[in-house]
């Protein structure tokens, strides 16, 4: 039987590719042997047909296919669906075991991770066969599973990915099955993106696929795996959702051996740790087979077991060494035969990022009477495989403070645009791997324990999981409630108590203390936080301070942020730095003013904070005392800030919203934390604290500039979309808006340093604050109407018109566009539609200097060539002509005079 | 802070040291001794400083040098083909389209920029293009006649 579609028409080849997005049930999970899943009750398959969206359903499998990934994503979000609520959890109780035995529970997840992010899997039916492109493991097992899903022949399925490494499964298998189902339904090639949603959700749903309990005597001489709940091999979710799963697909002898060895060897390692015995010695005592003993001793000698792990003194790395041994009996079952493997691995764990590196692997294998002795295997490909599959994979959606690698979200060069190679001839065996991988997972788990003291009882050891485990470990244990209460009261008193202790000065950390990755991470945090913007005076050296800040309470100056011990932060310990960033208390115990946005920086994660400290301390130290602040009484009494902090400062860490996507949370973390966007865009109350409620992000005046509203009240005439916000944040201008000027220009320059996905995340978060759509086809029309309306000269504005003709029209009238013409029409500029003229006047007086924004011309400053009267006329004219629907601005003359005074002072 | 910047001016690569925000006009006149483009208002209003960037007219006094580092710049000096003046230059000679000549660079470069974009403009398009190039001597009639000649139009704006 072959249910594959016939060849698709050849003429579609170039633009045949479609994009698929699957919709998973609201509830689905595999808990040991129970697959719990909502049932699809109803779907309106025709709801989006008019937009060219195909809805594909099969049992509880639902997907949409569209001409672009964006369109498919939007369609998936809008598709009307009804699901049932599944039955309540079935709780499985494990049989009780005798109490005197040592007992440990282990888990093996159905997916080690959701895949290399971001990447694509493309399914295409060609010549009656299925071809899969992308990071899909090429295994006979997957081909059998897909054949079962598609009710066809495994020989007709060709997978273009790497050969299977046999350590565990990834979300790309699920994506492959999804793409195949969608491609068959629409009769065209379909690309599915390895996004955290749904594939990280899938990994989470399958995280408890297999549970194992080991119990044994305290010396480990006698132990057994008591419980063996769940499935060794978990086929792609599409098989579970469509109900096409057959029992034959649930077993896998290689996976079973790997999982059993992981449990056995981890358990023995735990026994060794409990006894204080050397793990190799314990195993040698334990192994009865002489050839196995000999192999382990020889590998231990080679690896220099007992000698300390190499250490170059880097502070953020911890190192450890682990051992694992396995003996897989041969099919004959003879005692003296079978494959024995002994592996010893060294790992380096970055305690800040949670990243794990295999610094060395020594592996030996002996096939006994059945085969050759390989005392030392080639460890390089093995350790590469381990790093790729066990250590680097994202097991969970990226946490909010993960710094994505700079990359772009475009589909990679399309392999399907060239005619694909014919499927492999039937009957060609897959390349067999002579190396038995059984000890691979256990050896890493044991080395990790040696390095960190944390026992990982379930793979994978991805950075997010390792970091979470390390943080868990460093947290103090449970306290009694009264103790907690006492701490809370003491904390409150300490907050209200106006004098805080100074933190002892320390020597500046050595230059090589922090790794290159940590310093790079710190640089990105600093760029996201725009430290240098405030801590650099006009035309001065970066981070040397001295920039004045006019506040309603007087003038403040930023301070020296270089690691100079006397005038900078060179003798600040991390504790002092963190206290300043989170609580607004300087090293010497003095309160800082909230012009320094510690109210936002409190949300920065520990890992980012440490990286930032490392980065700042690694910069060159320059001596530069900060100018004296000029604050009016009583605001010059710093201790008053204790009460302010009590009233207005929330030092709690950032909490991701679990109901939102990973992208939203990432955006929120950057926006609310390091980015401190609200510091400018939220109006402040009488005490200089950000207002809450409806006033949040409602726009405010800062440094003589208006930071516009980032809410649904935005005055942008064409309206913002997520896409235009991204363009604006990434490039400093957006087609239907103005350019980033004033204090926003350096913000854009900082954002240009961040990975693109991070800027997209910020745009996504801002778009949700503004209720802005992802894209909006009606915008261009609206914008064109606004521009057309502005062609009419207003009546009674002749004085302003003359100034405009002379000073502005050469660039701002688009009669004949030149290279220096303004790229955005004035009629679309939000500032001309605002309630206040401040930004327009600022731009005229000081010009628009988008330094660091590539390809942008400069608007010159007219402060010295136009009089106040001329500027007032011009501003009124601009308002009347380019925002004809708005009321004229009031008190423009006073604002011009005030702002000019500030310009003259600079 | 000065940086080393590489420019391509009139077909030649050259390196200059300048702050990235320096107006292109200053670099052309002071560092490269190309005095075809003139300093007029310094505010992008008069057009005396016109050059071509990628063949399009640009006001060099408001253009930061860093914004054109990777682009092809042509000044009045680079317009002629050896000893043979550019047709626009020749038209200005033929019509004697100058009085003091200070605005002349801008007039010629603007017409050249327009013709690069639109090889057969009508008279209205020429007027619109030159609308924001100022001439203080009152030579507008001769300048327009020269522009029309360069565009292959008669003085009255008819194709000749």
TrEMBL record, chain A:
Sequence ranges assigned to domain Cytochrome c in this UniProt record: 517-620, 662-770, 795-882
Ubl conjugation listed as a keyword: no
Region (Disordered): 392-434
Keyword Iron: yes
Lineage top rank: taxon: Bacteria
InterPro entries (UniProt xref): AldOxase/xan_DH_Mopterin-bd_sf (IPR037165), Cyt_c-like_dom (IPR009056), Cyt_c-like_dom_sf (IPR036909), Cytochrome_c-type_DH (IPR051459)
Keywords: Heme, Iron, Metal-binding
Protein name, UniProt field: C-type cytochrome
TrEMBL record, chain B:
InterPro entries named in the record: 2Fe-2S-bd, 2Fe-2S-bd_dom_sf, 2Fe-2S_ferredoxin-like_sf, 2Fe-2S_ferredoxin-type, 2Fe2S_fd_BS, Beta-grasp_dom_sf, Diverse_Oxidoreductases
Pfam families listed in its UniProt record: Fer2, Fer2_2
Residues in 2Fe-2S ferredoxin-type domain copies: 3-79
UniProt xrefs under Gene3D superfamilies: 3.10.20.30, [2Fe-2S]-binding domain
Highest taxon of source: Bacteria
SUPFAM superfamilies in the cross-refs: 2Fe-2S ferredoxin-like, CO dehydrogenase ISP C-domain like
Keywords (A to Z) from UniProt: 2Fe-2S, Iron, Iron-sulfur, Metal-binding, Oxidoreductase
Database matches in PANTHER family: BLR6046 PROTEIN, OXIDOREDUCTASE WITH IRON-SULFUR SUBUNIT
Protein name: (2Fe-2S)-binding protein
Native species: Alloalcanivorax gelatiniphagus
């Amino acid at each position: 039987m072959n249910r594959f579609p016939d060849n698709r028409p050849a003429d579609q080849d170039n633009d045949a590719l479609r994009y698929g997005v699957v919709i998973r049930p609201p509830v689905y999970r595999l808990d040991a042997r129970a697959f719990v899943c909502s049932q699809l009750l109803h779907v309106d398959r025709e709801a989006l047909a008019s937009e060219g969206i195909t809805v594909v359903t099969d049992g509880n499998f639902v997907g949409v296919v569209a001409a672009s990934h964006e369109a498919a994503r939007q369609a998936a979000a809008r598709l009307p669906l009804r699901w049932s609520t599944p039955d309540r959890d079935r709780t499985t109780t494990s049989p009780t075991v005798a109490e005197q035995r040592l007992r440990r529970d282990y888990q093996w997840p159905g997916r080690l991770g959701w895949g290399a992010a971001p990447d694509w899997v493309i399914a295409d039916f060609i010549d009656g066969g299925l071809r899969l492109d992308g990071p899909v493991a090429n295994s006979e097992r997957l081909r059998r599973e897909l054949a079962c899903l598609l009710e066809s022949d495994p020989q007709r399925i060709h997978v273009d990915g790497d050969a299977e490494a046999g350590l565990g499964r990834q979300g790309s298998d699920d994506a492959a099955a999804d793409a195949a189902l969608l491609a068959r339904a629409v009769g065209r090639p379909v690309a599915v993106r390895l996004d955290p949603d749904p594939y990280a959700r899938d990994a989470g749903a399958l995280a408890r696929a297999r549970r194992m309990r080991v119990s044994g005597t305290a010396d480990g001489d006698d132990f057994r795996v008591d419980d063996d709940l769940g499935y060794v091999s978990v086929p792609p979710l599409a098989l579970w959702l469509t109900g096409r799963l057959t029992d034959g697909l649930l077993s896998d002898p290689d996976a079973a051996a790997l999982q059993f060895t992981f449990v056995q060897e981890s358990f023995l390692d735990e026994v060794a740790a409990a006894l204080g015995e050397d793990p190799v010695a314990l195993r040698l005592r334990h192994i009865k087979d002489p050839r196995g003993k000999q192999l382990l001793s020889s590998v231990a000698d080679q690896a220099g077991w007992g000698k300390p792990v190499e250490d170059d003194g880097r502070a953020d790395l911890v190192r450890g060494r682990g051992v694992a041994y396995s003996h897989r009996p041969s099919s004959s079952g003879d005692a003296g035969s079978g494959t024995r493997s002994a592996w010893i691995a060294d790992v380096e764990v970055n305690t800040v990022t949670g990243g794990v590196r295999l610094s060395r692997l020594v592996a030996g294998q002996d096939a006994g009477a059945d085969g050759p002795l390989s005392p030392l295997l080639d460890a390089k490909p093995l350790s590469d495989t381990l790093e790729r599959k066990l250590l680097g994979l994202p097991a969970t959606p990226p946490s909010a403070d993960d710094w994505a690698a700079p990359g772009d979200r475009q589909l990679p060069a399309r392999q399907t645009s060239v005619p694909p190679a014919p499927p492999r001839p039937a009957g060609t065996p897959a390349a067999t791997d002579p190396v038995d991988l059984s000890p691979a997972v256990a050896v890493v788990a044991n080395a990790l324990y040696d390095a960190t003291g944390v026992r990982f009882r379930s793979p994978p050891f991805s950075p997010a999981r390792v970091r979470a485990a390390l943080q868990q470990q460093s947290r103090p244990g449970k306290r009694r409630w009264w103790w907690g209460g006492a701490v809370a009261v003491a904390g409150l008193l300490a907050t209200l108590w106006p004098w805080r202790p100074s933190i002892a000065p320390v020597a500046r950390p050595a230059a090589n203390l922090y790794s290159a990755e940590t310093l790079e991470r710190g640089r990105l945090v600093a760029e996201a936080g725009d430290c240098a913007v405030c801590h650099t005076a006009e035309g001065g050296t970066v981070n040397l301070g001295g920039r004045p800040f006019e506040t309603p309470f007087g003038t403040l100056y930023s301070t020296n942020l270089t690691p100079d011990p006397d005038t900078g932060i060179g003798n600040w310990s991390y504790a002092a730095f963190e206290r300043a960033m989170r609580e607004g208390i300087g090293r010497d115990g003095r309160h800082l003013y909230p012009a320094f946005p510690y109210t936002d920086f409190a949300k920065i994660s520990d890992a980012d904070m440490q990286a930032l400290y490392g980065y700042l301390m690694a910069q060159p130290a320059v001596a530069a005392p900060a100018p004296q602040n000029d604050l009016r009484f009583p605001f010059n009494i710093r201790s008053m800030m204790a009460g302010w902090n009590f009233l207005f400062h929330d030092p709690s860490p950032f909490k991701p919203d679990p109901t939102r996507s990973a992208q939203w949370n990432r955006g929120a973390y950057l926006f609310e934390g390091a980015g401190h966007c609200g510091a400018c865009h939220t109006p402040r109350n009488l005490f200089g604290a950000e207002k809450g409620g409806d006033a949040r992000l409602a726009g405010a005046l800062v440094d003589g500039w208006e930071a516009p509203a980032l809410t649904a009240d935005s005055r942008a005439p064409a309206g913002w979309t997520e896409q235009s916000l991204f363009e604006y944040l990434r490039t400093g201008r957006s087609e239907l808006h103005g350019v980033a000027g004033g204090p926003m220009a350096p913000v854009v320059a900082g954002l240009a340093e961040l990975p693109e996905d991070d800027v997209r995340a910020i745009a996504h978060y801002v778009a949700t604050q503004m209720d802005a759509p992802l894209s909006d086809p009606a915008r261009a029309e609206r914008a064109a109407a606004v521009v057309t309306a502005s062609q009419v000269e207003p009546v009674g504005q002749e004085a302003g018109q003359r100034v405009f003709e002379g000073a502005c029209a050469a660039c701002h009238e688009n009669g004949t566009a030149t290279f220096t013409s303004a790229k955005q029409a004035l009629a679309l500029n939000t500032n001309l539609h605002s309630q206040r003229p401040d930004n327009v006047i600022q731009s005229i007086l000081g010009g628009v200097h988008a330094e660091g924004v590539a390809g942008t011309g400069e608007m010159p400053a007219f402060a010295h060539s136009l009089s106040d009267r001329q500027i007032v006329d011009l501003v009124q004219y601009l308002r009347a002509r380019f925002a004809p629907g708005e009321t004229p601005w009031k008190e423009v003359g006073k604002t011009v005079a005030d702002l000019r005074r500030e310009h003259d002072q600079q | 802070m000065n940086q080393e910047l590489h420019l391509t001016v009139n077909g030649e690569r050259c390196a200059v040291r300048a702050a990235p925000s320096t107006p292109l006009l200053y670099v052309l006149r002071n560092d490269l001794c190309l005095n075809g483009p003139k300093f007029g208002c310094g505010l992008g209003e008069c057009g005396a400083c016109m050059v071509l960037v990628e063949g399009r007219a640009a006001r060099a006094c408001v253009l930061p040098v860093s914004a054109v580092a990777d682009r092809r710049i042509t000044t009045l000096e680079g317009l002629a083909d050896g000893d043979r003046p550019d047709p626009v230059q020749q038209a200005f000679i033929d019509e004697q389209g100058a009085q003091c000549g200070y605005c002349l660079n801008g007039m010629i470069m603007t017409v050249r920029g327009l013709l690069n974009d639109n090889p057969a403009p009508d008279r209205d398009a020429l007027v619109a293009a030159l609308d924001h190039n100022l001439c203080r001597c009152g030579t507008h009639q001769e300048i327009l006649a020269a522009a029309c000649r360069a565009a292959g139009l008669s003085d009255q704006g008819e194709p000749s």
